[in-house]
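ok here's the first one, seq then struct tokens
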Amino acid sequence: MLRRGLALGGGLVLLILIVLGIKGCLDARANRELSDYARNVTQIVEETEQTSKSFFERLEDPGTLSVTEFVDQVNADRSAVDTYAARIDDLGTPGDMSSAQSNLELAYELRASAMDEISEKTDDALGDAGADKAMEAIARQMQKLLASDVIYEQVVRPEVDGVLADNGISDSDLPKSTFLPDEKWLEESTVSDALGAVSGSSGGETSGAHGTEIGGVTANGTELVEGAPATISGEEGVVIEVAVLNPLESTENGVNVAVTYEGTTVKGEIDELPAGETGTAEIPLTPTPSGEVTLEVEVEPVPGEEVVENNEATYTLLIE
């Protein structure tokens, strides 16, 4: 009986040790999963910080970027944030982190949505048509970025760090993450000033007077003069060439030219017009008119242009 009692007691001790060992292994595994989760989030957050920094530094000072290059960079930032959001969604989430994960996904959904909209509106904001509404829309997206920062700092970080602390993990706290560096970007005027520097510049020239004027118009190579009808052949179509002069001190980008005839308006564009130079927009008239035609030519004002009287001209064309 004594031997049996000793054997039973020994077996019980062994069972307890096995249970404790299994529990220790499970606890260690759970802690590793929590640490891995925190490490993965930290990596994404740090990459997000770099993207945010480059985006707002470029917005503050576009440097030598052309309009096209600036837009391309914004699109690249948008793509990066979309990728971060996808990586957040794909994280393996330990059970204790389920609430924090849901809030983290919301924060990154706001960031991705905001950057998507900013990217889509940047082209309009740097052009003439709808620029004001586009800048207003971009300023609204800055509010989403601020909201994402609040969710991360006030909800996600405390939740994650709390779970880590409850499990005795003290070296894996999440870093801060502030996508919106300054609340000044919530103001439409700040966004407008920043993007205005890009839309009216090239090679870093953001200051100076802005303006263009019609430098001459030809139809199938024949020079047109206001008040003096010109006769041309329309057998092979009619092409209007509008020379646009930039007489001032700022390079202009995306200069739009419109020709209106018989209720139809056709447009052309000069991608870049350096200060003191002349560019030409070639505009085919489609459909081809015939007989006596009145042409109304307009160079659309560039951002910051104050004198527009020399941007319009009217010609009479006799097409045989």
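and now the second one, same deal
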Amino acid sequence: MVVSHPVVNTVRKKEKPAWFKNEGLQSLALFLISLFLFLGFWEVGARSGWFTKGVPTATKTIEELWWWTTHPFFNNGPNDLGIGWNLLISLRRVAIGYILASVVAIPLGILIGMSPVAYRAFNPYVQLLKPVSPLAWLPLGLYILRDSEQTGVFIIFISSIWPTLINTAFGVANVDQSYLDVANTLGASKLRTIFKVILPAALPNILSGMRISMGIAWLVIVAAEMLLGTGLGYFIWNEWNNLYIPNILVAIFIIGIVGLLLDSIFAALERFVAFGRNS
């Protein structure tokens, strides 16, 4: 039998407040404090001349952000579009190129993952083309396609295909052999085995590859659009030509927010799949 020490029992530890125990509230508080300090440093530094001449203040940048987000869809010609139109143009290019890349990468990844012969045949192409910078394809795309819209889609396709392809092949190749043996024993056809056994088992890897591919696609399109015209990339380049830095910072903030939202969607899908597998 354990006997409590009478002196220890008389000394009670001071309870921490409930908010202090909540990690979510702690994280939010730390984020808000760091944001306040950053904006304060930015504001004071810009007004005091600590930075390069022409760096706008935080308040000026926030004013511009408010104006662009409250007037997103004006149209004064191809070179003077609201930031909402430019965002939709970039998202459209990313969506088309990304979907095309996924349509090619997933079936090809399944083939490579299932067949050692296909792996040895296609792996040299993957290893050769994967390290090439997406922007290196831009002049070739413009020369062959002669169209900025199609070139943007091509750049997204060629840059976002590899993570999905590689992760799909890895996931398929590492499916538990016992699952395949059971399917074979039950007489399942190759196509049924793929859809009922291999794809569900490899789905977490496939989604991880698709998530990485989406991040790359969103990263690349902004750089490519600086030379293609229209889109968020062109918006940034146009504001640079006008030497108006606040609008560049506004576009950077919007790009980051959209990238965060896109990544959050795939993170939610991954959690949903993981929950389904564990339930």
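notes on #2: The two ends are 41 Å apart (CA to CA). DSSP finds twelve helices and no strands in the chain.
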